[in-house]
Amino acid sequence: MADALDRPKGDSTPFRFPRRRKRSQDRVGRVSEGIARFLGTPRFLVYLTVFVFVWLVWNTWAPVASRFDDAALGYTALTLMLSLQASYAAPLILLAQNRQADRDRVSAEQDRQRTERSLADTEFLAREVAALRHAVSETATRDFVRSELRSLLEELREADAGATTASETNSP
């Protein structure tokens, strides 16, 4: 007990069974989903068909001393085994369906949130584009600036032509 230096010496603590770890619900769910998925495969149906066929052939044509399920009684053991398999399969399938419904619900919620974010982003961008269009409509366009420059150039030419004619009339 060298590692228990924080406890007083002596056997004052009662014996306790070690605690078992609780099984994770998620782990149980994953296992049940795996079984339920296997039960729904063609491979399982083939395995079950082969098992039942071998069972029936053995208990019908094998020597009487080696038969373990009597055909005269309607293959009671086989019926019991198939009923047991079905009684376990149904709850496993329901567990798997519940987990799938939970995943679908979470996925739908995430899709809804993504859609809301996309809609908000789209509305923001639409407002920004509208603001840019409004700002652009108030600014001078290239054609407007060209026409203003042409009219100024014509005014300068007219002023220069008027100054040239005035200087010719004043010169001796």
Task: List the keywords.
172 residues, mainly alpha, 4 helices
Estimate the mean pLDDT confidence: 85
Distance between the termini: 131 Å
Query: What number of structural domains do the residues give?
Result: 1
Extract low-pLDDT stretches: none
**Discrete helix count:** 4
Structural class by secondary-structure content: mainly alpha
Helix content: over 70%
Major β-sheet annotation: none
**Morphology:** elongated
- In N-to-C order, the SSE pattern is HHHH
Rg result = 46 Å
Number of strands: 0
Q: Hey, roughly how much beta strand do the residues contain?
A: under 5%
What does this structure look like?
- It is a single chain.
- The chain is about 75% helix and about 0% strand.
- It is mostly helical.
- The protein has one domain (about 25-165).
- Helix 1 packs across helix 3.
- The mean pLDDT is about 85.
Write the layout of secondary structure elements.
Layout (H helix, E strand, L loop, with lengths): L24 H15 L2 H20 L14 H63 L3 H29 L2
Helix pairs in contact: 1-3
In short:
This protein has 172 residues and is mainly α. It is built from four helices and no strands.
